[in-house]
Amino acid sequence: MKTALNVPLLLRQLVDCLVLTMAYVMAQETLSFFQHTTSHHPASIPVWCISMTTWVATGLYLHLYDDFRSRPFSYEFMAIIKTLLLHICILTFTLFYFFKFFYAPRAFIGIYSGYIFIGMMVSKILIKKLFLRIRMRGYNMKNILIVGAGETAMNFHNTIATNDHFGYQCVGFVDNTPNQTLNGKYLGPLSSLGHILENHEIDDVVLAIPESSREETESVIVASEKAAKRVKIIASCYQHCTSTVSMSLFGAFPVITIRSSPLDHSGNQQFKRFFDICFTLFLLITFSWLFILIALLVKISSPGPVIYKQERWGLKNKKLTIYKFRTMKINSEWNSDGTYRLTTRNDPRVTWMGKFLRHTSLDELPQFFNVLKGDMSFVGPRPHVTPLHLELQKTVQHYMLRHLVKPGITGWAQVNGCRGENERLDWQQQRINLDIWYIENYSCWLDFQIIFQTIVNLIKGDKNAF
């Protein structure tokens, strides 16, 4: 049993050592080629041994060799990045303090790290595909016993049955209530669990009974641990969880966060705020002349103030006042009966200058000051006016989740064509879904992509801007 479990781990570690060896030799040869020196160095073999030992040790510490069979490759990718960064730090310290005469350590580490990254990415993808083929043929499978035969248990069984690449197979079900629909996989009641564990080849016990059955839960855990089996518990709130679910310890209590975001971390928040300030100041200084020109044209186009202030809703559902260049005739946003009047295509209230500003999104420029104040971010979900905000709370699913982060001047929904006001419920739901996707998948690179696409849309004009 142990051999079956350790062979994949040993294979992955051996492949990593082979990749490190090839990367090491290629880095030496590359450096000697450009510097016209010999690739042999007295410290080469000790440094190579230290590198391999360090990689395997840090990989084990940072969960690089965890079983990723039921998780997307992005999890393994992050483990590779973390292991590589720590490996570089340790190797740099080693070379500079213990191998001071090692030739060109800075250049070598840079080249070596580049080869490691490429080699690890290729090898991990190939190994993942190899194990997938092996599991599809019935090898390297894990046998699980499901305790429970209710809805949760059946949904879990259907998940592993329809995803062969996960590498799990169900030995059977244990439940106090016999279920005739289990096609012969019902093995007995909870009282016979110990006997079942002794007579079947089982790797893990999956507990899928209601949380209210605490005595039964405890008896299952005790019996499983006596048989040296791992116990995995399906949380009763699983149906509410999303792909970004996370778990943490609050004292001694395991706490499940059903939705998490990279912006929950203070480091990402600080970086985003730093970028907002620097980028906004750069744009304000660079295009200060444009602000003056637009202000003059707005003033000429129709009587009234240049800047239009409007109440909207932002972070934590708090009110904020946003600034825009005025694009409509004054006092024209409300109907005679007191209801809010949405903007429509070819709206007669929009001035000739306003049409240009809206088409190019230049009417949003004064919101740079909202960003500097901290009310908004450069990239984020667009805030809605109060009447629409109050309406969408009641009609659009998950609408309020967009208020977990600061609103933005531009956003993922806007660059994907969901902009402007629209009364269609399905259109609004699509827009909110895109906003939530951005919140749960935030990265600085995604922000750069959105900003770039916004600039492209600004230059060519957006057909949905009116």
TrEMBL record:
Task: Give one GO term, molecular function aspect.
Answer: undecaprenyl-phosphate glucose phosphotransferase activity
UniProt subcellular location: Membrane
Q: What is the recorded name of this protein?
A: Undecaprenyl-phosphate glucose phosphotransferase
Where's the Bacterial sugar transferase domain?
Answer: 272-459
Membrane topology label: Multi-pass membrane protein
The entry assigns this protein to a family as follows: Belongs to the bacterial sugar transferase family.
Q: Which domain of life is it from?
A: Bacteria
